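tokens incoming
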């Protein structure tokens, strides 16, 4: 499971990315405030460390990238594609 972090009119937005058809879907969280964005994704069940999200935002702000892909890594050897069993990290290969 992957999501895209980008900047839109409403702030930093995390949107679902359907890798199969390469379509960016609806926004799951949006805010100009890093802390509020992190709280919003945590409420929705997305397990991403605050430092990892802040680093992704820094990559955009420093113009290293125009967007950042956040990919899921299954925790505890559970191979289900759900929020609860995944930990999200920056996909350095994109």
């Amino acid at each position: 499971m992957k999501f895209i972090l980008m900047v839109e009119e409403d702030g930093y937005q995390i949107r679902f990315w359907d890798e199969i058809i390469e379509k960016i879907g609806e926004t799951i969280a949006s805010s100009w405030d890093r802390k509020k964005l992190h709280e919003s994704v945590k409420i929705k069940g997305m397990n991403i460390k605050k430092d990892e999200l802040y680093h992704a935002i820094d990559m955009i702000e420093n113009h290293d990238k125009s967007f950042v892909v956040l990919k899921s890594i299954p925790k505890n050897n559970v191979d289900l594609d759900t929020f609860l069993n995944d930990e999200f990290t920056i996909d350095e290969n994109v």
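note: The mean pLDDT is 86.
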